[in-house]
Amino acid sequence: MSRRDDLIAKYAKDIKDKLGETPDMDLLTKITIGCGPSIYNTDAETIASSDDSELDRVRKNYLMKKLGLADGPQLMEAINSVIDKYGRSNRSKYRPVIYYMLCKHFGKQSVYG
């Protein structure tokens, strides 16, 4: 298996173990590929939920640019909801898992069609 395949398996395990969901592996794979080389950098691979500027980047760069959502309070509410579900105390909140959950939350799977 490639390194990317190993990471996708790790993210799928997180979705199963921490969120109690069975991941859509096709969607998870496409989102992981869409994250580009950031998944290979330990710091960039995770999202610091206590860093407001990091959450704002997720809002602007992922929700608005990638998914094409209009700005509004519902975006930060969704980010916080996803982080709460993932577990605020969980130190490793993987970017592809957060993006996967946000994509499903907004029903924007077609972006990765």
TrEMBL record:
Origin species: Paracoccus alkanivorans
The name this protein goes by in its record: DUF2853 family protein
Source organism superkingdom: Bacteria
Xref: Gene3D superfamilies: Jann4075-like
Pfam families: DUF2853
